[in-house]
Amino acid sequence: MLVTVVTPTLNAVAYLKQAIESVRVQDSPNVTVEHVIVDGGSTDGTVELAESYGLRVITGKDKGIFDAINKGSFQSSGELLGFLGADDVMLEGALAEVVDAYTRSGRQWVCGGIRLIDGLDRNLGEIAALPSWVTASMHASMGWGTIAHMSTYVSRDLYTLLNGFDISFPTASDYDFFCRARAKAPYARIGHALACFRQTGENYSVKHLDTAEPEFQRVRDGFAPSSPVVRRFYRSFSLWRYARNPGWASRRFAAQGRFPFRLMYGRAS
User: Fold this and answer.
1) Cα distance between residue 185 and residue 167, in whole Å
2) 167 exposure class (CB count in 10 Å sphere: 0-12, 13-18, 19+)
3) Domain covering 2-256 assigned CATH 3.90.550.10 in the classification
């Protein structure tokens, strides 16, 4: 099966080599990987590095990370589409597991867990994927980031049906997209980590969090229950994540002084 991995970049040379090499080793008897780089105007050697690996590189100005992902996805060929940040790392054997889950389940998308790492590759804890019984309204109520885009793979048919990411959500388009996907079809779940999300403090979502609340509210209004009581009840399901992932939860609690209800993902910039 041909699997496309799209990586949006903007001056991402610091970690891009590691990301590329983590994708290159995913080829197996059942998986062929197409890795597409979509660059928004790098000046630090990002494009040259990607081209040195023989990757397809799409260049040109874009309207943000999700516009870049759409460009790469709609100009690629894979039956399954995945999205890996330029500073993220795919774990060994991840795509073989994704293709196996996709084939066996007959479902149109696959969600896995993630491992958090820092700039020195230190393990900051793992987060298991949400149970597959979580609905779109539950997901919307639980908040942004409960599904990690670097460990989620979507069939081309479903991606096309949804018309990709809605770029009217500059920061929370993944939150909206996964709610729309779940409203159309359940996903196959791989509980353990498939990829590492690198927390650098420069992640796209972190840098834009202060202006993102109106976007979050739009998603909640579109998919979450109208009852505040039911929303709070569904929100409490986040406690499942803390109980199942105590290492991550304790670090987040120590860092913020409270239990966080948002996990933030992003693009190297």
Assistant:
1) 22
2) middle
3) yes
